[in-house]
Amino acid sequence: MLRQFVHSVSVITLMAISIVGRADSTTSEQFIKALTERLEITLTEAKNNKQLSNIEYIDELIDQEILPQLNLEVLSKRIYREHWKEIVDKNKKQEAINAVVLSLKRTYRLAVSSYDGQKIEIVESKSLKSYDIVRIKIATDGDKDHMIDFALRQFDSAWKVFDFSVDGIGISKTLYGSISQQIQSDGLEKTLEALAQSGRANTDS
């Protein structure tokens, strides 16, 4: 299931490419639309230049253009849930966030390298009480189209994505299921150490 989830997000998780949406000048839909247009240009150029198999290029793209557009602390809280208080009490917040980043980077690395010209379009958006949801469709050739829901809101007058789901499978819920089970089995500190080691191993491989 996780393999299918990673494959499904093959271009979706790059939606935060290089533009910071100011809340006073854009709506959430305009923000995602601008990112979508920039995304297709950036990935098409990278594909034509044969950069999508270059790990150093991909990691630089992730570090400089993608991660800054996510609210990592809010996403981490949604992943760790009831374990967050223990994380804060044990002064492990940064380690916990770093573990989430490493997990996301593994997904993003696979996502970038698998891009093959898929078309992206916004199909729906709605405002809830405290955040917005923008739905996009990823059109594929001969396969089922994918629907992605982005949850985003304003943080310090800037739009940030704090969660998303692919075909109804939420990233925070998916990661929570695996991480929480490991914490219950091995404890918080051993789990964070294992996640860090796994992330480094994937980076070095």
TrEMBL record:
Protein name: ABC transporter substrate-binding protein
Superkingdom to which the source organism belongs: Bacteria
